[in-house]
Write a structure and sequence with these properties.
By secondary structure, the protein is an all-beta fold. The chain has one domain. The chain has no helices and 6 strands. The strands form 3 sheets. The protein has a two-stranded antiparallel sheet with strand order 1-2.
């Protein structure tokens, strides 16, 4: 589990991304401290590499008049390496 934690002795309002064992999460691209994780694959990204954004669908539901609707985060962090599918993937085995 990842969580934000204040660094020991930190005097700024900044936060660090740490693993549950207390280790700082590192950027996938370099060895800098990660400030976030890719919403699509979970790779850590530092401030320099956390500039890419993509929309992310958090949930889909059926609304009024039987119309499908989605709750979307417009600017979710994206590492730029992983390849989120542009089209829905059929998964008939779920039913």
């Amino acid at each position: 589990m990842l969580e934000f934690a204040r660094g020991a002795g930190e005097q700024t309002s900044g936060r660090r991304l740490v693993h549950r064992e207390g280790q700082t999460v590192k950027c996938f691209f370099d060895d800098n401290e990660a400030c976030g994780v890719c919403r699509f694959c979970g790779r850590g990204a530092c401030k320099e590499h956390a500039e890419k954004r993509l929309p992310y669908i958090t949930t889909i539901y059926v609304g009024a008049s039987n119309t499908p609707k989605a709750v979307v985060v417009a600017d979710a962090l994206w590492c730029g390496v992983c390849k989120p599918e542009a089209q829905p993937v059929p998964m008939p085995e779920i039913y």
